[in-house]
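#structure-requests
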Amino acid sequence: MSGRAETGREDAPPVGLVLTSHGLLAGGVRDAAEMIIGPQDGLAVVAMGPAEDLDAFRAKLEEAVHAVDRGRGVLVLADLFGGSPGNTAAYVLGPTVEVVTGVNLPMLLEVLINRVDAETPAGLAAIACTAARDGVMRLADMLGG
């Protein structure tokens, strides 16, 4: 899975990761990923509640980004392009913080597996986008139907 031993980065902290979404989606996708690959350090969830104050939500998101940054930057995965969690994440976007929208389980698993070896949050964002696209398929096509 991870190439840590081969790259000599076994002591390197992972790129920080924040999941954000409307409602319980971010927590649910985190729970599913941890069921598959185990508990994760440097991972925070910021869920937006119904009618939540956007300034308060922004403060929670900024706090989460700061909390998971171990000196290698942070990747924020948001549920939906154009939605309030993703739009709010634009405020934390910067030289050491990347934002990718459209989070799904294949994306999250690939990010978690690669976040120690990723050189930058931007490199990890590219991995996230590829994994998200590759993880979507029509099962009937795969089964020849």
